[in-house]
Amino acid sequence: MTTGRQTRFPMTRNALAELRHKPRRVIAVIVAIMISVGYLTASVTILAGETATFEHSTIARVSETDVVVTVRTDDPAAQADLVARVTDVAGVASADLSFLSRGWVTGASDWVQQQSVPANPKLRWTDLAEGRWPGTPDEIVLGNVTARQLNLRVGDRVTINDSNTINGSSSSATLTVTGLTQEGDTLLSGLALSSFVAPSFYTVADAIHTSGQTEILVIGDGTVSQERLAERVTAVAGGNRVETSSGMVQRIISQRTQGVSIFLLLLLVFGAVALLVGSIMIVNTFLILVAQRRRQIGLLRAVGAQRDHIRRGLLVEATAIGVTGSLLGVGLGVALSAVVAVVLGGQFAVPAGQVIAVAVVGVAIAVLSVLVPARRAAMIAPLDALRTVAGDAIGRRTSLVRRAAPLALVALGLAAIGLGFTGTAFALLYSVGGSFVCAVGLLAAIGLYLPALLRGLGSTLRRTGPTARLATDNTLRNPGRAAATGAALMLAVGLVVSLQVGAASMNATVDSNLDARFPVDVTVSMFEGPLPAGVVSDISAVAGISDATGVRSARVTFEGGGKPKPVRALSPDVEAMAIVSAPRPPITAGVILADPYLLADAGIRDGSSVTVTGRSGSVTLPVEGDHLAPTDGLIVAPRVLSALDGDAPVSTVWAKARPGADITELRSRLRTVVEPLTGAEIGGGLTGKAIYHTALDRLLALTTMLLAVAVLIALVGVGNTLGLSVFERTRESALLRALGLQRRQLRWMLAIEAALLSLAGAAVGIAAGTFFGWVGTYAVSRELSLENIRFAMSVSQTLGVTVVAVVAGILASVLPGRRAARATPVEALAET
């Protein structure tokens, strides 16, 4: 064949024909790419939709505006004058005052965000779920979730206090609930919000708006751009801040969604993991394909194909596979995000640029994954067309450098982790970077320790018969293939276990810190006077409460060098201290405990002496900051309270919630009990704990679901490896059948191989995941200044991951086993 004909060798046509005639060989690769790309596509599209929903709920009041003026005066006359000036600006269609504030609900520790009802219906950004909009100053609309938690319905009355006068007696309003609005929920709820305040709506005439933020919402007539309209409004705004609505949106979102960028980074990291697991499987698959097509490639070389032609053919195959898998993955991801948007009632958004980038990455991964197999295929000589297929890399020795490099990476990673644990600057960076380097080293070194682990796991099975001995030997015959499969499983299982250990440890650590920050789950207290008889038993009987006891308290004043401050002094006895989340000894008579924020507000240093005066006398004692004390009170020993007020009544109830109690339902039941008590207030740290746990549980559930993709890809890789090895070992299987191995024994042999590979990969993944999960917990806890860092691990979840990996690996061997057992010995030998 001439040089010109060699140059025009039709490798592209041959590669595409190979895919058309033998598609089963690459189906698993296409599925892996489809799942990986689908995962990433779903991640970016779901996040885009959720971000849009979150943004809309966060800044919905200005979503229909063009320009927003933040008014800096509380004078109604000045506000009205400014509105008139803005309305007269050329290009302005309407200008409406909007009031925004926060209020404290009497009888509960709940806050609501108060929003005036816009006069322009176009600016009413939420829908009513029930009832009507408020029409008079004594009416209000609440969110439906908030109303359920407060045990309120349309027609009920609620008292809201000015947010600046929690401990005073001025500025409060008792309002009638006229309607309920929809309160949406998103995946980002609890992860990015800087505060947890429920919405409510009232008329502009309501007095409580005076403590909040005032804005003028400007809608243009469409004749000029937002930027130009903002310039015109600025000219008459008189020093008040003027922003385009889009600019205000970006400012608010950047202030309130710091967590979203971390969440996006987390999703992309998990997506990169899924692609990495997929690429390991793709490399392994193409290596096996090259080994099984060795004679075919040798024949192509014999008829004129050059090394470049062989490489080009495999690259064409990889590109076609990557394009097919990426297109299917994009479709899968977009469909999944649409389902999520419908289920959550959020917005559906497809960021075209990001989706295209994801698809390109999928194709690139497929092409890059074939470079090593293509290089190996190009080295096949024409004489290999006359040889039988041999297992690739059998007996190949590993050089000393290749052995030492992974171990050096592990040592370097451990050193960085140790440096991060010392609390030095950039400790989190050292810990995370060291964990990554250490993980890469463990993956690279898997060929050194996996055979020993397989040998150890198979040592017991070998005694059960020849089938188990053959299966164990087969896992050791090709270390490269076993290492690739084991690495994929190790990475996938290790990440899941790392997440589980990290989540369990963070939950335990957060619980410990929350118990210190919110030591009492539920409090019911009277601001003045005693609680009626029987309240303690009524609260004890509430479903979800495990224990309750009364606490004596008195009104006192305390002074630490400044102006005397009126507060309450509570005196918990031994029984009350038993209800505290974290066990504590009884309060001593030589100290006074005060909330740290109360001390800071009063300008009193921790440890300094304060004088507390009650109806019966006064005491001077050192004060210590302690979250056991309520925000408006002190904690003193019973003897000290008797010196301050000998007749101090039981005016507070401390209660402990049952584990797993529904917080919303519990608070609703408590309000039913407390509602008849004039002046009673529900408090405690249960809601604060629930907020943190909701965020952690949501993050855990979502990330576990996403990491399951990596496990799925790894298990697909196990099945693909077994399936291709059946083709590679056709002659071997035929000889075994000819020597008397039964079909069921052949199927059982492959099942044992899959189980050994899955169990070995899962064992290494569990060990590594446990270690890295603890490292991550420690690093993040130190970064967040959390104390009492705890290690926790769910044994049941870890065993569940192991069982799933092994069972799925065995199931993955079913089809390859049936295919191997279906052929008769004569047919198999003839094919080889």
UniProtKB/TrEMBL annotation:
<feature type="transmembrane region" description="Helical">
    <location>
        <begin position="699"/>
        <end position="727"/>
    </location>
</feature>
<keyword id="KW-0472">Membrane</keyword>
<comment type="similarity">
    <text>Belongs to the ABC-4 integral membrane protein family.</text>
</comment>
<feature type="transmembrane region" description="Helical">
    <location>
        <begin position="434"/>
        <end position="454"/>
    </location>
</feature>
<dbReference type="GO" id="GO:0005886">
    <property type="term" value="C:plasma membrane"/>
</dbReference>
<feature type="transmembrane region" description="Helical">
    <location>
        <begin position="795"/>
        <end position="815"/>
    </location>
</feature>
<dbReference type="GO" id="GO:0022857">
    <property type="term" value="F:transmembrane transporter activity"/>
</dbReference>
<feature type="transmembrane region" description="Helical">
    <location>
        <begin position="314"/>
        <end position="342"/>
    </location>
</feature>
<keyword id="KW-1003">Cell membrane</keyword>
<feature type="transmembrane region" description="Helical">
    <location>
        <begin position="262"/>
        <end position="291"/>
    </location>
</feature>
<keyword id="KW-0812">Transmembrane</keyword>
<dbReference type="Pfam" id="PF02687">
    <property type="entry name" value="FtsX"/>
</dbReference>
<feature type="transmembrane region" description="Helical">
    <location>
        <begin position="26"/>
        <end position="48"/>
    </location>
</feature>
<keyword id="KW-1133">Transmembrane helix</keyword>
<protein>
    <submittedName>
        <fullName>ABC transporter permease</fullName>
    </submittedName>
</protein>
<feature type="transmembrane region" description="Helical">
    <location>
        <begin position="348"/>
        <end position="372"/>
    </location>
</feature>
<feature type="transmembrane region" description="Helical">
    <location>
        <begin position="482"/>
        <end position="503"/>
    </location>
</feature>
<dbReference type="InterPro" id="IPR003838">
    <property type="entry name" value="ABC3_permease_C"/>
</dbReference>
<feature type="transmembrane region" description="Helical">
    <location>
        <begin position="748"/>
        <end position="775"/>
    </location>
</feature>
<feature type="transmembrane region" description="Helical">
    <location>
        <begin position="404"/>
        <end position="428"/>
    </location>
</feature>
<feature type="domain" description="ABC3 transporter permease C-terminal">
    <location>
        <begin position="269"/>
        <end position="378"/>
    </location>
</feature>
<dbReference type="InterPro" id="IPR050250">
    <property type="entry name" value="Macrolide_Exporter_MacB"/>
</dbReference>
<feature type="domain" description="ABC3 transporter permease C-terminal">
    <location>
        <begin position="705"/>
        <end position="825"/>
    </location>
</feature>
